[in-house]
From TrEMBL:
Residue stretches making up the FAD-binding domain: 2-344
Gene3D superfamilies associated with the record: FAD/NAD(P)-binding domain (3.50.50.60)
Keywords: FAD, Flavoprotein, Monooxygenase, Oxidoreductase
PANTHER family: GERANYLGERANYL DIPHOSPHATE REDUCTASE, MONOOXYGENASE
GO MF entries: FAD binding; monooxygenase activity
Protein name: 3-hydroxybenzoate 6-hydroxylase
Keyword Oxidoreductase: yes
Cofactor(s) this protein cannot do without: FAD
């Protein structure tokens, strides 16, 4: 079989399917395998799968298992709510881990190499088609590859997705700056590396956490670009970064000089689609469900997709050991699109909540301050075992409307919410 795309999603799927005894060829357009960017957060619904793959110990040794996740207001710096990540690990059975992207990518790449995945670079796929007994991809070079099944994990700008829907990436007008700071820098001394912290502010937010056992501080600064809103082509530039955070607290502003200023990531997603299988071609990862990153589940969903596919291959073998692909792909499509739809729509709403201003910001802050540290009603739908069938998909949480919060003396003094 063929997997197109050597990102975290494609590598995860290639490993999962090779583990089921299938011969996998992975086609990647870039001349070498790699990941750009800095840190990535892996919640228990991902570390559970890494454990099943036998890769969790290596991931732990490369990353950091923080003690707490803390949300603060970016304007005054006050703590709004926190999650005790050691208790969360007990609840879900697996840790919350933060890791450098290149370390996660490298870990999956090495696992694929060990498992015998055929890794092919300089292979840019330009088209996909079903054949009488499988599917065929054509490369920019003119060459073709054929297999019984093609999994398209070709990311946000997926070529394969065009078989399913005529859509385009949706700009959020938000842009992310990233940066890592070596531990010897004074900035790192002002930070508790055992915490994942997000400062939420009007039209902006700022995230930090430790990486590589505390050798690096990872920082992410995200803001709404006025130039994007004005329809200008050249948006998200460093001058906009400084202006966007002008109203935030000293700690956040002091972090900005440490961001990489020569590269930034404009934030796009796409509306959910519920059909991912076309004959013997299936979408996976960002190609199927690129999210906004606010609940940090994009790479996780991609890894879950590959695991679910592998599990359904195992459950759909015919007597002679062949895979009943119609059944396996149907089972995959029965469960993953609805889960990812929930993540995509919740990510958009979560971002809106982070970026509120004025009265709504105060209402949000009052709600968050009233939350019990050990209340898991907003994470149970996400961090439990990955569903293999629709009936295993947990109930969604019930959102609390902001309008239910009366901003008056009682709430502001913390007596009610
Ligand atoms: C700022 C930011 C923070 C994030 N934080 C988190 C987080 O904390 N946790 C989390 O889980 N997710 C996070 N995400 C999301 C996550 O990074 C992505 O969802 C994930 O990397 C998608 O992986 P993928 O393999 O599906 O796609 P990609 O990483 O885009 O990989 C696609 C691969 O396919 C290749 N390719 C593309 N087109 C072709 C072609 N035509 N032929 C052959 N190869 C092709 C590409 O070169 C690439 O290697 C974040 C995203 C951003 C932007």
């Amino acid at each position: 079989m063929i997997v197109v795309g050597g990102g975290i999603g494609g590598l995860g799927a290639a490993f999962s399917l090779t583990r089921q005894g299938l011969a996998v060829r992975l086609l990647e357009s870039a001349p070498a395998f790699g990941e750009v960017g800095a840190g990535i957060q892996l919640a228990p619904n991902c570390t559970r799968i890494l454990d099943d793959y036998g890769l969790l110990d290596e991931a732990r040794s490369l990353g950091v298992v923080p003690d707490a996740m803390v949300m603060r207001d970016a304007v005054d710096g006050d703590e709004l709510t926190r999650i005790d990540l050691r208790d969360l690990e007990k609840r879900y059975g697996y840790p919350y881990l933060v890791i450098h992207r290149s370390d996660l990518h490298g870990l999956l790449l090495r696992a694929c190499e060990r498992a015998g995945v055929e890794l092919v670079n300089d292979a840019q796929v330009t088209s996909y088609e079903n054949t009488a007994d499988g599917a065929r991809v054509t490369l920019a070079s003119g060459g073709t590859h054929e297999a019984g099944i093609v999994i398209a994990a070709d990311g946000l700008h997926s070529v394969a997705r065009r078989l399913f829907v005529d859509d385009r990436p949706v700009s959020s007008a938000y842009v992310a700056y990233r940066g890592t700071v070596p531990a010897e820098q004074p900035r790192v001394r002002s930070v508790d590396l055992s915490e994942v912290v997000v400062y939420v502010g009007p039209r902006c937010h700022f995230v930090h956490y430790g990486l590589r056992g505390g050798e690096l501080l990872n920082q992410v600064a995200v803001f709404e670009s006025p130039k994007a809103l004005a329809g200008q082509e050249d948006w998200g530039t460093p001058d906009e970064l400084d202006a966007a955070f002008a109203q935030t607290c000293d700690f956040v502003r002091d972090g900005l000089p440490y961001m990489w200023r020569d590269k930034w990531w404009r934030m796009f997603d796409r509306a959910p689609i519920m059909n991912w299988v076309h004959g013997r071609i299936a979408l996976l990862g960002d190609a199927a469900h690129p999210p906004l990153q606010y609940i940090a589940q994009g790479a996780i969903m991609a890894i879950e997709d590959g695991w679910v596919l592998g599990e359904h291959v195992a459950r759909n073998r015919t007597a002679d050991g062949a895979v009943d692909w119609s059944a396996a792909l149907a089972a995959y499509e029965a469960v993953r699109p609805e889960h990812c739809r929930r993540v995509l729509t919740t990510s958009r709403r979560w971002g809106e909540l982070w970026h509120l201003d004025g009265l709504a910001r105060e209402q949000r802050n009052a709600l968050l301050r009233a939350r019990d540290t050990y209340d898991y009603s907003f994470t149970d739908w996400l961090y439990g075992p990955t569903a293999l069938t629709p009936d295993q998909e947990p109930e969604m949480f019930t959102p609390i409307p902001l309008s239910s919060v009366a901003i008056g003396e009682e709430v502001l003094t913390g007596d009610a919410a």
